[in-house]
Amino acid sequence: MMSRKAAFAVAAVISAVAATSVLAQDPIAEREKLMKEWGQATRPVGAMLKGSQPFDLTAVQAALDIYAKHAATMPALFPAGSDGGKTEALPAVWTQNAEFNALFVKFGADATAARAAITDEASFKANFPDVVRTCGTCHQTFRAKS
């Protein structure tokens, strides 16, 4: 497990790199687009976790790939000043930015680790909840309840 100090350092590096590579004209619209992609990838996988849809390793791997990819991009989509307008992001995103960015690092790392560990339904049920838990942690602290 990555130390908190190391996670913050990695988050800072990812933010700096992503900020130079992401040229979003509208960071709110771009982050909402990526969050919707996460949601679309999560719905069938969540149904598999609940047992209401058959296990599909390809769909699970695709979801985890999307999580990891967007986790690396997301921090740059919350620049200072992007807290206005229609957004569910709470002020804590900017006042606790290092913690916020570290959660994206953890989410990406969790998704990558789960991608390697999940080979069947049993390993899916054992590993996927940890990925979802990290996602939920961010929502609890940094997203307005709708």
Automatic annotation (TrEMBL):
Residues 1-24 form the signal peptide. GO terms for cellular component: periplasmic space. GO terms for molecular function: electron transfer activity; heme binding; iron ion binding. Pfam families: Cytochrom_C_2. GO terms for biological process: electron transport chain. Binds 1 heme group per subunit. Heme c binds at C135, C138, H139. Gene3D superfamilies: Cytochrome c/b562 (1.20.120.10). Keywords: Electron transport, Heme, Iron, Metal-binding, Signal, Transport. PROSITE patterns: CYTCII (PS51009). This is Cytochrome C556. It comes from Ancylobacter defluvii.
